[in-house]
Amino acid sequence: MQRLEALTWDHPRGYNALAAAARLPALTESGLSIAWDKQPLEGFESHPIADLCARYDLVVLDHPHVGEAVAGECLRPLEEVFGIEVIARIEADCIGPSLASYRFAGSHWALPLDAATQVMACRADLTDGLAPVTWDEVAALSALTGKVALSLAGPHAILSFLSIATAYGEPPAEADLDILVSPATGKAVYDLMFDLAHRSPLSAREKNPIGILQHMSSHDDVILCPLVYGYVNYAAPGHGRPIAFHNAPRQSVGGRPGSTLGGTGIGISRRCPITPELKTHLLWLMSPEAQIGFIPGHEGQPSLRAAWHDAGVNARWGRFYENTAETLEVAYVRPRHNGYIAFQTRASALLRRAFDTRAPAQGVIDQLQTIYCEHRVAGGER
Q1: Largest Cα–Cα distance of the chain, in whole Å?
Q2: What is d(CA 8, CA 14) in angstroms, rounded to the nearest whole number?
Q3: How far is the C-alpha of 47 from the C-alpha of 32, rounded, in Å?
Q4: Could you give the 3-state DSSP secondary structure of residue 353?
Q5: Which residue has the higher pLDDT, 85 or 45?
Q6: Which residue from 100, 218, 229, 232 puts its CA 20 to 30 A from 328's CA?
Q7: The dihedral of CA 205, 226, 38, 70: what is its sign?
């Protein structure tokens, strides 16, 4: 019996389907055993990937870690394991940039088992079933109620900044890799976030996305979070009030919903022995059978486009998928150079501190640019 050690993150969306798949009789009969461990969400977002790959055969990771992984030479390229044609087929079937986001330095480095991006979450029972469409409408609801929360903990302050800049027509560092965002767009985004942050309920300030959604499902002081990573589990919860999910806000009606891609992928570490049984199991996880039936049936969040538009999946999960698919299709993909994760951590801390001290916009934007350049040069963009 071949036994593999594997690591995912500690939430039903990240663990249940993988653990259930590892218990399938067909896997055991093939001579393969996979033991899935869990780490907290914060570790998933920031723990050095090379250290995890030294201890595990399979590692669930976020795409911004791929530059760090390539620099550390700790993951196997998928093309080496499955072949170019198989990876091209999976990429065509995945929603939005779910697989493309794991491409770096000429190869793909993780299978996108799970797709997610920032979307709008609201308590439909407290908003008369209506949700804002534009950022102006979000700001108006915030001023009216004081019950609109920004997701600012951990890396999420800068992720929200990147998303709003994308909605405002300037996806960060896309037109020019050396420029995070122009001064004009940066100021507009900062001013909006500053106003929202100062009206945001304190109860949500220190919470990660899971914490915010859990709070919303059981308390009435947060009726809307305009940008939070979507968790299908809260659309039809076993306990608490259901959360209604919608596309991320736009600058104007008909504009691009600004959102920063999340999701998770299964990376194969260099220590992992590649066998036909392992390849069969991983490709089954990416199959329509698993993505439309098995994974949603075990509280997972699939990455195949067909699953996001499946009528049965949507009926079971409060139309979460069809209500947010547009946002995922056009989600912004973060830089992935080695050093980006460190930038993300520093930039979020800078924004939180700036909101607390009421720092002027221009100085903050200049500091974000400086931090971005420091980590881009240190890590090397590829």
Answers
A1: 63
A2: 6
A3: 28
A4: helix
A5: 85
A6: 218
A7: negative
